[in-house]
Amino acid sequence: MGRTDRASRVIAAPPATVYSALLDRESLEVWLPPDGMRGRVEQWDPRPGGGFRMVLTYLDPADSPGKTSDATDVVDVGFAALVPPERVVQRAVFEAEDPSYAGTMTMTWHLTATGEGTEVTVTATDVPPGIEQAVHEAGIASSLANLASYLEAAD
């Protein structure tokens, strides 16, 4: 059994709006890459059993060598469950030669309505040991901050 990482944030938007941003290709490219990265979705199939392939490129690869190449992390993400507007379950596999990044990580996005909007909690299970916990949790928190900025600016 692998490690579990998590982060959460309240976003000033209703659950249905947050859920839609989790399943919109263009939105994901904007908010999902954590600080210091940009993302490009290469394949897109937003349905249970479908998924996407994202290329994450480090803006400064000298500070953060990639898993797939010196400057990139490539991840294939499958949608294991889509439960609008409450939950999205993803299975993520990194393209990497280093066995410390091997395996399938499950990312569960829980959306709970609150008085202020939506509490989004991301739980990552079976995290590959090559991914440092503090760095991973900071990356998830960064993506959540980006999601909040993206949705709250749309209001």
TrEMBL record:
SUPFAM superfamilies, A to Z: Bet v1-like
Q: Which residues does the UniProt record annotate as the domain Activator of Hsp90 ATPase homologue 1/2-like C-terminal?
A: 12-152
Which superkingdom, per the lineage? Bacteria
* Family from the record: Belongs to the AHA1 family.
Q: What is this protein called?
A: Activator of Hsp90 ATPase homologue 1/2-like C-terminal domain-containing protein
Q: Which organism is it from?
A: Streptomyces naganishii JCM 4654
